[in-house]
Amino acid sequence: MPIVKVIEVIASSETSFDDAIKNCLEEVSKTVHNIDSIYVKDFKVHVKDGKLASYGVICKVSFRVDKS
């Protein structure tokens, strides 16, 4: 029976929410393997001078733990 671990990650993009999620996967994939899913827990935008400056997502990343 596989063990699944969940970590929470904050990622951002200057372009879109979709890019922020892709950035999350790209960065987490550098150190975490066997990723099964990404659950987007929350969205946010940063505003600068009355305009959208960046898009942010808070994600829960689920991955299977390797057996020893």
Automatic annotation (TrEMBL):
It comes from the Bacteria. It holds the Pfam family Dodecin. InterPro entries: Dodecin (IPR009923), Dodecin-like (IPR025543), Dodecin-like_sf (IPR036694). This is Flavin-binding protein dodecin. It comes from Flavisolibacter ginsengisoli DSM 18119.
